[in-house]
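$ run holo --ligand "adenine" --emit tokens
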Amino acid sequence: MSTTTSAAMATPQATATVRPLGILAALPQELGDLIDAMRAESGVHTVTHGRRDYHVGSVRGTPCVVTLARVGKVAAAATASALIHAFDVEAIVFTGVAGGVSRDVHVGDIVVASTLLQHDIDASPLFPRFEVPLLGMSRFSTDTALAERLAAACERFVAEEGAACAARFGTREPRVHRGLIVSGDQFVASAAAVGALRDALPDALAVEMEGAALAQVCYEYGVPCAVVRTISDTADDHAPTSFMSFLTEIAGTYSNAILARFLDAPRGAG
Ligand code: ADE
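-- output --
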């Protein structure tokens, strides 16, 4: 079953007894089969709001609102804000791919953010580089319990299917990392650019284009969030081709496997 309404008709917060979980990705391949799974389980009610389609239903028994942020920090911030205000989500999880920044992070690895930072924000000398002016912060934390549950789901996926995935996709056996993810409105695709990121932010594990914007909006509204990224490339000169093949051939498999285990875990469980 599928139904569609405009935003003006959307009143999920007026009727829902349990606040839904918001699930976001930038691109359709990064969501895997999530919307189809929702369609099969509960039917999907699609609400169009701010030029995006928000799919409302339930996945593995969890009421969810699933949507595509599209690419970049503004897109992520706008979508996060709509999930909070128009859909009254209880928490937001972002799933997708990222470029590896740390030399220890390889294609096929998974990074769960504990903090996120905008690597391209720079109002110096008025404010320190990386600080969000007037908020006095550069690093935004994810929710500890949500990130713990997401990382546990990733660890289970790696234990159960990591070796098979590596053989199927020709990658190393995946590892799960936790730490800093940096975001900016750039696709990082040169040895010089990723080297500059490493120099400026030695603890950065991965780079993408949305997560820190989501984390800032969630911080400002007191909504828990978590971000999981599978490494599609190492942000160097090979990044465009590595990214495209990973996105089309592998990203959905990881996303399906991680989200299924995440949604099946009891809340509060690591
Ligand atoms: N997402 C995936 N790979 C990326 C890269 N190299 N730069 C920015 N975002 C990315």
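-- notes --
The CA atoms of residues 45 and 150 lie 26 Å apart.
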